[in-house]
TrEMBL record:
Protein name: Protein containing DUF116
Keywords from the named record: Membrane, Transmembrane, Transmembrane helix
Transmembrane segments: 6-25
A Pfam match: DUF116
PANTHER family per record: NUCLEOTIDE-BINDING PROTEIN-RELATED, POLYPRENYL SYNTHETASE
Highest rank taxon of the organism: Bacteria
Organism in which the protein naturally occurs: Candidatus Magnetominusculus xianensis
Length: 173
């Protein structure tokens, strides 16, 4: 109970204060967001939540730009060719029987959460979208994993499948 309460303090008080600071120190903003995501994740783990009803939410930029299959409406349209990480993420999701969705933005992500009504979320996104999404979703437990962006933001990104699997395993009974 204390971890949930403390998470509320971190997300609703500490985070806005850090973002205010980030408005003055713009080069530090992303590290502030990452710090809050890490704090949130440890507190979610401390809550000891165990549930089968997990939503795995992915950003559209994980799909490689060379792939012209439309997977935003239905990620299972993916042909699993392995040119991008979507194939393995579908595999993990099927293995653990998760709800798996791809969001193209914050409002779509919010609608998915409202429709699916998960008991916990594992979310992949950039630090900015993750931190704001985690704050918006509170008290719902969200473990956030930031994506890797070797080609810049929102383009051919990737994510550590090990980190995603570890987060899911921590929530699964
Ligand atoms: S795994 Fe292949 S088919 Fe699936 S989204 Fe990636 S590139 Fe497209």
């Amino acid at each position: 109970m204390w971890a949930k309460w403390l998470r509320g303090i971190v997300l609703k008080i500490y985070y806005p204060m850090l973002m205010l600071l980030g408005a003055f120190f713009k080069d530090k903003k992303e590290s502030f967001q990452r710090h809050v995501i890490n704090l949130n994740n440890s507190l979610v783990l401390k809550q000891g939540i165990k549930t089968q009803r997990i939503l795995l939410m992915l950003p559209h930029c994980l799909q490689i730009d060379k792939c012209d299959i439309r997977i935003t409406n239905n990620i299972y349209n993916c042909k699993r060719c392995g040119r991008c990480g979507v194939k393995d993420l579908i595999g993990v999701s099927e293995d653990k029987k998760l709800e798996l969705y791809m969001a193209t933005g914050g409002s779509v992500a919010r609608k998915i959460v409202m429709d699916v009504r998960p008991h916990a979320i594992v979310a992949v996104a950039c630090e900015r979208d993750l931190s704001s999404g985690i704050v918006d979703s509170y008290p719902l437990p969200v473990i956030g994993i930031h994506n890797e962006r070797p080609y810049g933001p929102c383009f051919n990104t990737s994510v550590s499948i090990e980190k995603v699997t570890a987060a899911i395993n921590a929530l699964c009974p």
